[in-house]
Amino acid sequence: MNLKTLIVGILFFTLAFGAVIMEGCSPEENTKSNAYQQFIQDSVFDLHTYSNTKMIKTKHLSLDLDVNFEKKIIYGVARHEMINYGTDTAIFDIRDLDIQKITLGKTKEKETDFVIGPWDKDSLLGQPLIVKITPKTKYINIYYKTSPNSAAIDWLDPELTEGKKHPFLYTQGQAILTRSWIPVQGTPKNRITYQANVKVPKDLMAIMSAKNDTKIHEDGIYHFKMTKPIPCYLIALAVGNLSYASLGNHTGVYAEPELIDACAKEFKDLPEILNAAERIYGKYQWDQYDMVILPYSFPFGGMENPMLTFANPTLIAGDGSLISVIAHELAHSWSGNLVTNATWNDFWLNEGFTVYFENRIMEELYGKETADMLALIEFQELEQEINTIQKGKHPEDTRLKLALNGRDPDDGMTDIAYVKGAMFLKTLERDLGRQRLDKFLKNYFKQFAFKTITSEVFVDYLHDHLLLPNNFSFNTHEWIYEEGLPKNCFHIESPRFDQIKTLAKDFNQGKNIFKKKIGKKLERKTYITQEWMAFLRYLPDSISKERMLLLDKHLDFTHWKNAEIQTEWFLKGIRSGYQPITKSLEQFLTKVGRRKYILPLYEALIKTPKGKTWAKKVFSKAKGHYHYVSRKSVEDLLQ
Ligand code: BES
Ligand code: ZN
Q: Which residues are catalytic?
């Protein structure tokens, strides 16, 4: 839906429902219809919400939730404490919610009228929930229930969990999915505190992006409090048979009991990661940092829900090799959660800063050589992505500041925001020196803590506090508002990758790279994960079956249980027509739901008619195991 349709839609509400909403208003007030004027202004600012936050906004949200696994429904009451600037209409965002009644008042509740705007099938925004209030209204209580198809909620049957005995549930709010499980003003612009009373089946634990207990409550009732103001996309809930392992220094991990020991081993560096992050950009502001390992369907590697990162079990590689994802999510405790993008067009402020910070943490802990390899892997992905975007429907998407009018904010989740964003900061670091940039960033996090900002606010701050004081001129505008990668982009070098490139070339030309040189045999542990990924990328897609078989014979890539390496291997296998991967690939696609892995695999598969038929067959089997986010992306692709 584009802005025009949106506004036409709103005018339609005004005409169709005006009588209900404006009931009791004088004709003058009616023609002014200030809420709608305001709405139009607000919606120009953030195109992904219907809410009128400039007129009235939630300050604190109090939730009563009853989680029913049999029906796959959450029964809820969302009690919004508002700051009301004198309006008679409050607009919330809802998607697939069944609204039972709405009352006003804190202690004495009185029912009020509401209308729900139309929802067109393609609309990603859901529907506006328009509530009649008075200019004095402070408390709005929305009684509702979710739909079993809620886009945010993944309901998992016991078979899809590690223990296979208990069901599991988790929510994914970012970018605009919170409205499918809680009626909210669905814009990151507004920050709220929240509390929740959650009732779950007796033997399960509930945890949220808030202060959590570490034990299962016999009565199945849990209370939560998030006392720092957060954007609503960070409200999150997970319910399952969970246990907890403390890792020290205010960090720990929740996982099903079957996985908890493996998790404690895999993520043992977590306290050190937190220390390193604090050394770089100042004190951690959220008291506790825990993570929860969700089932395989989780569509991301990690999600930075405050105090409780949600993570994919593929991170348990057995050797700590995918820990950078956790460094990334922790880094969001500064970039993203403390200083938040005001709209989804400013998404790079969240992700670009986080990728830069993540890499700094990795350097601090594991050295520059490793950090550079990680960065180079990402940079290769950026180059490819720029190429793809430039050839596609929206070449303007290679800009850092996006213009996602009428589009899913998910479309902005590309390496542009992540890696071009990080390269912008790396380039500044090269030109001004690490010390100056760090001081600037530390102050930036302090200055805008618990605030939401746009790219424009950042550009001004950068100019005033870094460029001007150092009398330095930088092509900031080109970086943020123009397409492609500026010429002055920082260049990452990795001598270890150069060696890998030679190794790949030698191997492809028929050299035996496996033979023992003085006591050294090429084995899995010869190189780190990122080196193997690079090795596979440097091999041509036309590589012969005989060469692929040889790799399998010596290193058994087809059964290597490291999702990053598996993805690279499967991609090479699909592109070169290497059949022996088939069974293993099918198992992977029906088990793992992380979009970053499965989408490129489906993309590669559909390039041939045979591959496409097979992909469709596998997807029809697998889709029940995917969260809405991944399911929708693959569905769009296959269509
Ligand atoms: N916040 C993102 C995930 C996200 C972005 C969800 C946009 C919904 C909409 C998270 O921090 C993230 O970036 N995850 C990455 C981690 C990687 C870059 C290390 C992922 O899951 O791939
Ligand atoms: Zn991120």
A: 329, 418
